[in-house]
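Example 4.3 (complexes with small molecules)
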Amino acid sequence: MCCDGTLFGFVELASGEEVRLRAWGIEPIRQGGKLGFRQSCPAWSAAGCGCYGVRPATCRAYRCPTLIALEEGSIAADEAMARVRKTRQVVGELRRLVPDGETLPGAPADPKLLLLAGVASLLLDRFFRKDHQKQLQVERHVA
Ligand code: SF4
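Answer. The structure with iron/sulfur cluster bound is encoded below.
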């Protein structure tokens, strides 16, 4: 999920990293003044990261909340794997509902699709994104 565009649409690069990554088909762009590349990553495959030994510093440094919780011992491996499985299942169902040639923001406003998109976003925010990366920010105001 980290490398296929599910979690993030853009990976920031440090200055100079783009030179060595071009060999893996990673084409640098500028977005909001930052150098990086778009996900899904061309170096990624079912076998994992194709450029693991020279992957960008952003990829090396990223530790999702579930990995941190696992390393700290606040959740067990079973719970971490259950989070991954559930989120993959919801994202997979969502992908099957998006019509061919459409992207999610532009897809028809089918209620089931919108509901699954909300569930997927909540799962990704809650278990795999850091606070500043969360996409669903809803505040409840009590009158
Ligand atoms: S460079 Fe490797 S770790 Fe980074 S996004 Fe691409 S496949 Fe993932």
